[in-house]
Amino acid sequence: MPASTRTASIERRTGETSIELTLNIDGSGMVDIATGIGFLDHMLHLFARHGLFDLKVHASGDLHVDEHHTAEDVCICLGQALDRALGERRGLVRIAHAYVPMDEALGFVAVDLSGRPYCVVDADFVTPRVGQLGTDLIAHLFESIAIHGRMNLHARVLYGRNDHHKVEALFKALGRALDTATRIDERLGGAIPSTKGVL
User: Fold this and answer.
1) What is the pLDDT of residue 2?
2) Are 96 and 180 within 8 A, CB to CB?
């Protein structure tokens, strides 16, 4: 991964999981992802490619129980890495959104890197799981990223039939919205993008 000042590495080890994650915000979409959950790997790959983030994730967990702990902890680490890499969040565009079509499905994500975590997910799924990932976890994964990334995140599936396509549209939209929100606006001259003077 190329050198950048906006990078962060997170290690999380619990009785349930062991995770190493490195994020480079100013990357080119390079990925090295192995969580043991194929569909989660696919979604993180899409997130990184569409956000032009370099992302390395190596995770092992108690998949003999189910996928919950591993998927949750990976997204906790992703949020923490984003927060750490952004530092004081000086000069950021800060607020952005993206619509992403995926065949018959349309996903929307809006983010505000405000430092105030909040998450709203409006998405209905018709199947209990996509691959090895339960669809009931999708909202929780976005919540984990939002809380630990200290961002306001709204995600919505406007319509669609296929659950794979719906989830894919959301992860692509998250990557694209964060790509814009994390960009540096030279007009700010390194100032904090808030009337409060702090995020």
Assistant:
1) 39
2) yes
